[in-house]
């Protein structure tokens, strides 16, 4: 008994030491795998209702609807974020947002996250805890939280997030339900993250509102379930660009879609940034991704939920996605390896 108590005390001492290393600016190698896990999990609470949270072989979470909505995204340093552009907490916010938006786009409410984290041994432990804090804060916006995950050594910083969600009795809103005659509507900002990327790419850090849209997007999470309740027939979040993502929806639904530029909102801030950079703000709105706005189709007789606005029409098949009745001139969005 005495030996086990001593081991337990030593373990507690190591845990406290690891947490102190993280707060004092040590690296993840200084803290160690289990010290880092203890420090990260000690900074947050799993969401209400969690049966088994971090610390066991697997998490156990309730599924009130009997169905679980699941989405996964991987963020890689240098591809999806840069630490000279974004703070660790902003990276965490972004990593959560890109997954939570996918859950909302199915008409579901996010419930929990599982996180995989990889980094080099010389990474400052505060980077890991900062990312965890950002993930936790963003998930808390919808009442969700982190219930488990893993940390590994990697050549570069990687954050992999799996989000779970609950449909609450709703039929999932997929990409395949759009029909000719339906209207196309959007909720959330378009073009802001693209404008922020353009600003950061030029070496500037302001205007802050535009730059932060790229660093930590703010999807309209509650708009997804609201759209489902209102009768949305198809839905997707705008991660790769409005035209590109509508192209996915049109392909899955076997329809055409036409967007009316007069119906698209181009905020004055985007116009000012575009004028300063010699860019076209409408191109950002049409083809810029990473805002994670939601775009959906509805029957024409439906009253759109609050915050949604009509921007186009669903057409017969074989017309593709057009803008003001014409094919768009230029690349329509982001695609890896292109």
From TrEMBL:
Binding annotation for ATP: 149-150, 175, 239
Top-rank lineage group of the source organism? Bacteria
SUPFAM superfamilies tied to this protein: PurM C-terminal domain-like, PurM N-terminal domain-like
Tell me what reaction this enzyme catalyses: thiamine phosphate + ATP = thiamine diphosphate + ADP
Q: Which residues participate in substrate binding?
A: 80, 290, 334
Keyword annotations for this protein? ATP-binding, Kinase, Magnesium, Metal-binding, Nucleotide-binding, Thiamine biosynthesis, Transferase
* Functional pathway: Cofactor biosynthesis; thiamine diphosphate biosynthesis; thiamine diphosphate from thiamine phosphate: step 1/1
- Stated EC number for the protein is 2.7.4.16
Comp. bias (Low complexity): 17-26
**Where, in this chain's numbering, is Mg(2+) 2 bound?**
73, 102
A single GO molecular function, which one? kinase activity
Q: What class of enzyme is it?
A: transferase
Q: Where is the composition biased (Basic and acidic residues)?
A: 1-16
> What sequence ranges are listed for the domain PurM-like N-terminal?
55-165
> InterPro entries in the record, alphabetically?
PurM-like_C_sf, PurM-like_N, PurM-like_N_sf, ThiL-like
Positions of Mg(2+) 4 binding: 57, 71, 102
Q: Where does Mg(2+) 3 bind?
A: 57, 102, 237
Outline the segment boundaries, as ranges, of region: Disordered.
1-26
Q: What else is known?
A: Reaction mechanism of ThiL seems to utilize a direct, inline transfer of the gamma-phosphate of ATP to TMP rather than a phosphorylated enzyme intermediate.
Which family does the record assign? Belongs to the thiamine-monophosphate kinase family.
Matches recorded under PANTHER family: THIAMINE-MONOPHOSPHATE KINASE
Q: What's this chain's function?
A: Catalyzes the ATP-dependent phosphorylation of thiamine-monophosphate (TMP) to form thiamine-pyrophosphate (TPP), the active form of vitamin B1.
Name used for this protein in its record:
Thiamine-monophosphate kinase
Origin organism is Prauserella halophila
Q: What is the lineage of its organism?
A: Bacteria, Bacillati, Actinomycetota, Actinomycetes, Pseudonocardiales
């Amino acid at each position: 008994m005495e030996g086990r108590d001593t081991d337990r005390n030593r373990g507690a001492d190591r845990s406290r030491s690891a947490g102190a290393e993280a707060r004092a600016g040590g690296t993840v190698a200084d803290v160690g795998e289990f010290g880092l896990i203890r420090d990260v999990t000690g900074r947050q609470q799993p969401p209400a209702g969690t049966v088994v949270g971090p610390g066991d072989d697997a998490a156990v979470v309730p599924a009130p609807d009997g169905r679980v909505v699941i989405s996964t995204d991987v963020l890689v340093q240098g591809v999806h974020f840069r630490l000279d552009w974004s703070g660790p907490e902003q990276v965490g916010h972004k990593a959560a947002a890109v997954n939570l938006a996918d859950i909302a786009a199915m008409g579901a409410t996010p419930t929990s996250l599982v996180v995989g984290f990889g980094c080099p041994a010389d990474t400052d432990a505060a980077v890991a805890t900062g990312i965890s804090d950002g993930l936790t804060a963003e998930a808390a916006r919808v009442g969700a939280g982190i219930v488990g995950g893993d940390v590994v050594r990697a050549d570069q910083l990687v954050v992999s997030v799996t989000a779970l969600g609950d449909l609450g009795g709703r039929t999932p809103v997929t990409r395949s339900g759009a029909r000719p005659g339906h209207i196309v509507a959007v909720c959330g900002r378009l073009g802001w993250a693209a404008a922020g990327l353009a600003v950061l790419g030029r070496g500037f850090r302001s205007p802050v509102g535009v730059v932060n849209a790229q660093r930590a997007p703010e999807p309209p999470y509650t708009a997804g379930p609201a759209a489902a309740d209102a009768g949305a027939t198809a839905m997707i979040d705008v991660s790769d660009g409005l035209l590109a993502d509508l192209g996915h929806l049109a392909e899955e639904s076997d329809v055409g879609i036409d967007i009316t530029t007069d119906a698209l909102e181009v905020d004055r801030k985007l116009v000012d940034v575009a004028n300063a950079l010699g860019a076209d703000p409408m191109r950002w709105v049409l083809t810029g991704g990473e805002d994670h706005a939601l775009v959906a189709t509805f029957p024409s007789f439906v009253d759109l939920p609050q915050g949604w606005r009509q921007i186009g029409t669903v057409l017969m098949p074989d017309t593709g996605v057009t803008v003001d009745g014409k094919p768009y001139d230029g690349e329509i969005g982001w695609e890896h390896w292109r």
